[in-house]
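Action item from last meeting closed. Structure (204 res):
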Protein backbone atom coordinates (compact mmCIF):
# COMPACT_ATOMS: atom_id res chain seq x y z
CA UNK A 1 0.00 0.00 0.00
CA UNK A 2 1.32 3.40 -0.96
CA UNK A 3 2.03 5.79 1.89
CA UNK A 4 0.02 8.98 2.32
CA UNK A 5 3.01 11.08 1.32
CA UNK A 6 3.41 9.19 -1.98
CA UNK A 7 -0.27 9.53 -2.85
CA UNK A 8 -0.29 13.20 -1.89
CA UNK A 9 2.74 13.99 -4.03
CA UNK A 10 1.20 12.13 -6.98
CA UNK A 11 -2.07 13.98 -6.44
CA UNK A 12 -0.28 17.31 -6.39
CA UNK A 13 1.38 16.35 -9.66
CA UNK A 14 -2.02 15.83 -11.28
CA UNK A 15 -2.79 12.16 -10.64
CA UNK A 16 -6.52 12.25 -9.92
CA UNK A 17 -6.64 8.53 -9.10
CA UNK A 18 -4.04 9.04 -6.38
CA UNK A 19 -6.21 11.76 -4.88
CA UNK A 20 -9.27 9.53 -4.97
CA UNK A 21 -7.34 6.72 -3.29
CA UNK A 22 -6.07 9.06 -0.59
CA UNK A 23 -9.53 10.41 0.20
CA UNK A 24 -11.08 6.93 0.24
CA UNK A 25 -8.44 5.90 2.75
CA UNK A 26 -9.87 8.41 5.24
CA UNK A 27 -13.57 7.91 4.60
CA UNK A 28 -14.13 5.45 7.44
CA UNK A 29 -12.17 7.53 9.95
CA UNK A 30 -14.08 10.67 8.99
CA UNK A 31 -17.37 8.82 9.28
CA UNK A 32 -16.44 7.83 12.84
CA UNK A 33 -15.36 11.38 13.62
CA UNK A 34 -18.66 12.96 12.58
CA UNK A 35 -21.17 10.17 13.31
CA UNK A 36 -20.66 10.36 17.06
CA UNK A 37 -21.26 14.10 17.21
CA UNK A 38 -24.03 15.06 14.76
CA UNK A 39 -27.51 13.91 13.81
CA UNK A 40 -28.02 13.32 10.09
CA UNK A 41 -25.40 15.45 8.37
CA UNK A 42 -22.53 12.96 8.45
CA UNK A 43 -22.28 12.43 4.69
CA UNK A 44 -22.55 16.16 4.03
CA UNK A 45 -19.77 16.95 6.50
CA UNK A 46 -17.54 14.28 4.98
CA UNK A 47 -18.18 15.78 1.54
CA UNK A 48 -17.36 19.27 2.80
CA UNK A 49 -14.14 17.97 4.30
CA UNK A 50 -13.13 16.25 1.07
CA UNK A 51 -13.88 19.39 -0.97
CA UNK A 52 -11.78 21.49 1.39
CA UNK A 53 -8.92 19.00 1.05
CA UNK A 54 -9.17 19.10 -2.75
CA UNK A 55 -9.02 22.90 -2.74
CA UNK A 56 -6.05 23.04 -0.36
CA UNK A 57 -3.95 20.08 -1.49
CA UNK A 58 -1.21 22.34 -2.87
CA UNK A 59 -1.12 24.35 0.35
CA UNK A 60 -0.38 21.47 2.72
CA UNK A 61 3.08 22.43 3.90
CA UNK A 62 4.24 19.07 5.19
CA UNK A 63 3.01 16.04 3.31
CA UNK A 64 4.04 13.76 6.17
CA UNK A 65 1.39 15.39 8.39
CA UNK A 66 -1.49 14.74 5.99
CA UNK A 67 -3.40 12.68 8.55
CA UNK A 68 -3.33 15.52 11.06
CA UNK A 69 -4.32 17.94 8.31
CA UNK A 70 -7.36 15.80 7.42
CA UNK A 71 -8.63 15.97 10.98
CA UNK A 72 -7.82 19.66 11.27
CA UNK A 73 -10.13 20.30 8.33
CA UNK A 74 -12.75 17.92 9.75
CA UNK A 75 -12.64 19.67 13.13
CA UNK A 76 -13.10 23.05 11.46
CA UNK A 77 -16.08 21.75 9.47
CA UNK A 78 -17.61 20.24 12.61
CA UNK A 79 -17.27 23.45 14.60
CA UNK A 80 -18.70 25.53 11.76
CA UNK A 81 -21.68 23.17 11.55
CA UNK A 82 -22.32 23.18 15.30
CA UNK A 83 -21.98 26.95 15.45
CA UNK A 84 -24.43 27.41 12.57
CA UNK A 85 -27.07 25.42 14.46
CA UNK A 86 -27.19 28.08 17.16
CA UNK A 87 -30.15 30.42 17.14
CA UNK A 88 -28.04 33.17 18.66
CA UNK A 89 -24.90 34.81 17.30
CA UNK A 90 -22.99 34.11 20.49
CA UNK A 91 -19.82 32.15 19.69
CA UNK A 92 -19.57 28.66 21.11
CA UNK A 93 -16.75 27.76 23.48
CA UNK A 94 -15.93 24.20 22.45
CA UNK A 95 -13.63 23.95 25.44
CA UNK A 96 -16.64 24.04 27.76
CA UNK A 97 -19.74 23.04 25.79
CA UNK A 98 -20.50 19.38 25.07
CA UNK A 99 -22.33 17.61 22.26
CA UNK A 100 -25.03 16.73 24.80
CA UNK A 101 -25.38 20.43 25.68
CA UNK A 102 -25.94 21.24 22.01
CA UNK A 103 -28.73 18.69 21.69
CA UNK A 104 -27.17 16.62 18.92
CA UNK A 105 -27.25 12.84 18.90
CA UNK A 106 -25.00 10.28 17.22
CA UNK A 107 -26.21 8.86 13.93
CA UNK A 108 -23.74 6.09 13.24
CA UNK A 109 -22.27 4.58 16.41
CA UNK A 110 -24.46 2.19 18.36
CA UNK A 111 -23.25 0.52 21.53
CA UNK A 112 -23.69 -3.24 21.74
CA UNK A 113 -22.87 -3.56 25.44
CA UNK A 114 -23.73 -1.67 28.60
CA UNK A 115 -20.11 -0.58 29.02
CA UNK A 116 -19.97 0.81 25.49
CA UNK A 117 -23.20 2.75 26.03
CA UNK A 118 -21.78 4.24 29.23
CA UNK A 119 -18.60 5.32 27.48
CA UNK A 120 -20.52 6.90 24.59
CA UNK A 121 -22.71 8.85 27.00
CA UNK A 122 -19.64 9.97 28.89
CA UNK A 123 -17.85 11.12 25.75
CA UNK A 124 -20.86 13.16 24.66
CA UNK A 125 -21.02 14.81 28.09
CA UNK A 126 -17.48 16.22 28.19
CA UNK A 127 -16.49 19.39 26.28
CA UNK A 128 -16.38 18.90 22.51
CA UNK A 129 -12.69 19.83 22.29
CA UNK A 130 -11.81 17.18 24.87
CA UNK A 131 -14.06 14.63 23.16
CA UNK A 132 -12.27 15.31 19.87
CA UNK A 133 -8.87 14.89 21.53
CA UNK A 134 -9.78 11.58 23.20
CA UNK A 135 -11.40 10.07 20.13
CA UNK A 136 -8.58 11.03 17.79
CA UNK A 137 -6.02 9.65 20.23
CA UNK A 138 -7.75 6.37 21.09
CA UNK A 139 -9.75 5.67 17.94
CA UNK A 140 -7.42 7.00 15.25
CA UNK A 141 -4.09 6.64 17.04
CA UNK A 142 -2.97 10.25 16.67
CA UNK A 143 0.15 11.14 18.62
CA UNK A 144 0.24 14.15 20.93
CA UNK A 145 2.27 15.97 18.27
CA UNK A 146 -0.44 15.30 15.68
CA UNK A 147 -3.14 16.28 18.18
CA UNK A 148 -1.33 19.55 18.80
CA UNK A 149 -1.49 20.28 15.06
CA UNK A 150 -5.19 19.42 14.87
CA UNK A 151 -6.12 21.46 17.94
CA UNK A 152 -3.79 24.35 17.15
CA UNK A 153 -2.02 24.22 20.51
CA UNK A 154 1.52 23.45 21.74
CA UNK A 155 2.30 19.77 22.25
CA UNK A 156 2.46 20.22 26.03
CA UNK A 157 -1.03 21.69 25.99
CA UNK A 158 -2.28 18.75 23.92
CA UNK A 159 -0.91 16.36 26.56
CA UNK A 160 -2.64 18.35 29.30
CA UNK A 161 -5.90 18.29 27.36
CA UNK A 162 -5.72 14.52 27.03
CA UNK A 163 -5.14 14.20 30.75
CA UNK A 164 -8.08 16.47 31.56
CA UNK A 165 -10.26 14.63 29.07
CA UNK A 166 -9.49 11.26 30.66
CA UNK A 167 -10.10 12.65 34.14
CA UNK A 168 -13.43 14.20 33.17
CA UNK A 169 -14.57 11.10 31.33
CA UNK A 170 -13.58 8.84 34.21
CA UNK A 171 -15.44 11.09 36.67
CA UNK A 172 -18.48 11.07 34.42
CA UNK A 173 -18.46 7.29 34.21
CA UNK A 174 -18.19 6.97 37.98
CA UNK A 175 -21.27 9.19 38.33
CA UNK A 176 -23.21 6.99 35.93
CA UNK A 177 -24.75 4.91 38.69
CA UNK A 178 -26.75 2.70 36.36
CA UNK A 179 -23.82 1.72 34.19
CA UNK A 180 -22.30 -0.80 36.58
CA UNK A 181 -18.82 -0.07 35.33
CA UNK A 182 -15.43 0.29 36.94
CA UNK A 183 -14.08 3.37 35.20
CA UNK A 184 -10.35 2.89 35.11
CA UNK A 185 -8.05 4.33 32.49
CA UNK A 186 -6.97 0.85 31.47
CA UNK A 187 -10.57 -0.07 30.69
CA UNK A 188 -11.05 3.23 28.88
CA UNK A 189 -8.50 2.24 26.26
CA UNK A 190 -10.08 -1.20 25.77
CA UNK A 191 -13.58 0.26 25.54
CA UNK A 192 -12.47 2.90 23.08
CA UNK A 193 -11.04 0.22 20.80
CA UNK A 194 -14.25 -1.82 20.99
CA UNK A 195 -16.41 1.18 20.11
CA UNK A 196 -14.06 2.10 17.29
CA UNK A 197 -14.88 -1.26 15.71
CA UNK A 198 -18.62 -0.69 16.16
CA UNK A 199 -18.65 2.90 14.88
CA UNK A 200 -18.16 2.05 11.22
CA UNK A 201 -20.28 2.99 8.22
CA UNK A 202 -23.17 0.55 7.88
CA UNK A 203 -22.75 -0.97 11.33
CA UNK A 204 -25.70 -1.01 13.71
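Sequence:
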Amino acid sequence: MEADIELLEAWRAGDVRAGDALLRRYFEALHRFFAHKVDDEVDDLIQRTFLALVRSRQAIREAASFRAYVFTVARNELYHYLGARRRTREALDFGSVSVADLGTSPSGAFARRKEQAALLRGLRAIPVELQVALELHYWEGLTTAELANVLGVPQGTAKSMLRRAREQLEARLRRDAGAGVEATLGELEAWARSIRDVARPGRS
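Note appended to the action item: The chain is about 65% helix and 0% strand.
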